[in-house]
Amino acid sequence: MRGCLAVLALLLASFAVHAADEGEKVVLIVWDGLRPDSVNEKDTPNLAKLAARGVFFANHHASILASTEVNGTVLATGCHPARSSVIANVEFRPEIEPTRGFNTEHVEEVRKGDGLTGGKYLKVPTVPEILRKAGRPTAVAGTKPVAFLFDRAERTDEEGAKNPVLFQSRTLPASLAAKLKEKLGAFPPPADSTKAANSEEDLWTTRALLETLWQGDAIPDYSVLWLSEADYAQHGAGPGSAPALAGLKSNDELLGRVLERLEAAKQLGRTNILIVSDHGFSTIVRAVSTPDALVKAGFTASKDFLKPPQKGDILVVGHGGAIFFYVTQHDAETIEKLVDFLQGLDYAGTLFTREAKKGTFALADVHLESEAAPDVAMGMKWSNEKNEAGVPGTLVTEGAKRKPGQGNHASLSPYELRNTLIAAGPSFKQGVRSTLPSGNLDVAPTVLAILGEKGGEAMDGRVLEEALAKGKTPEGEPATTRLETSRETGHGVWKQYLKVTTFAGKTYVDEGGAELTPKP
Ligand SMILES: [Zn+2]
């Protein structure tokens, strides 16, 4: 009898492997702004367990800018920001919004962009779009509106039943929103991020996915769940603060719910779960206003062109840890003066220009050279110092919206460029901590490879073979180099660097910084 049972168990086990081979699923869960050093058994027990049974990518990279819409698009498309065209959360494209920057994930502006480009607001396809066109079921749900960028086409109710999209409280098809409201109540109001985590909104979104977008036991081939934590409370109260820890806890509980739901549907064994963050995080030590400083220095600069701009007028778009400068008519003389001015600021980090002017790198060096790119981009100064909670990594932030002690990102600090990827499931190796470089760029091609769908080969990222159970680790060792450029300015000697690592034919930016040695 015991022998029979053993044979039966063996049969069942082989059946399970066979079934998994035939139809694996992928659930991509974004913990917005999750630093890799936030993952531990105490604060994130479910995630730590998942990492222990799968692969922890200990050398993972966000794309530049280390911000949500940029890396959301990178995760969705597997392509560099300049190639997809989303290079910041807020961009100045006068044909869409004539006087100031617009939020690159806002439905109305995205629709306008699609209208102007024949549907090419994003110039490359996303994973859900590729799968939808192949007739495969998908589901996208985000507490943040970035989820819209994953799959933005209007759709009929019938199409939407197979490929639903939820972004904040809005949906595709539009009729889905009423169904969700009836089942879950209204989308909750946002939390006060200085005091609490945004758990209610994240819970609502997760329940929407698990209880409505996923119907019965039929889990879609590919799902995206984008949570607002850990970003939300880290912005309001800083990394390591009580609200930030509460955000980690609520995310971890939501991960538990996802696992239980998959288990109940008997799909856990064939589902690959990827937990990724769009970027890391730092603590603010100082808030500055660069438009004011520019005006004081004699430039015509503002955050909004209230009247039609003249040649050389500068539009300034702040991204917290970075700033974009758009010079009207690309006036060369103003750009030169602007670079010189910025190189004298005590909070300037790495500078980028369209043609890599002396003492700056090219926008193309970090894949920001889109048609609508600014003339000058600047990362803010950062440090390795610790905050009140003992969490390392600080930055100077642009704008008065956030204060010292609160958190921000988008600079070239390693604490923001280094982010989290954890993957577990039938396609992945077990109990591996990979120190080989990987990036958000690599997630989409890896997902398509797991799902057996074409399209990944046209992407800029690579399939993370070293982590796949049947993968072959790329040959060769990672090579880290330091690119430098310097220039003598009116203020002293400006020197800036980019630290980059190359592996498997891809280049990952580890960090960037700058130093001004004042004239004696
Ligand atoms: Zn953020």
Description:
- By secondary structure, the chain is α/β, with parallel strands linked by helices.
- The protein has two domains: 22-86 and 122-280 and 418-467, Alkaline Phosphatase, subunit A (3-Layer(aba) Sandwich), CATH 3.40.720.10; 284-407 and 479-518, no CATH class.
- The protein is 29% helix and 25% strand.
- It contains 15 helices and 26 strands.
- The strands form six sheets. It has a nine-stranded mixed β-sheet, with helices on both faces. A six-stranded mixed β-sheet has the order 12-13-14-17-15-16, covered by helices on one side. It has a four-stranded mixed β-sheet with strand order 18-19-11-20.
- Helix 9 (199-213) packs parallel to helix 11 and helix 10 packs antiparallel against helix 11 (242-264).
- The longest helix is centred in the middle third of the chain and has 23 residues, at 242-264.
- It is globular.
- The protein binds zinc ion.
- Zinc ion binds at residues 33, 68, 231, 235, 409.
- Zinc ion binds next to helix 10.
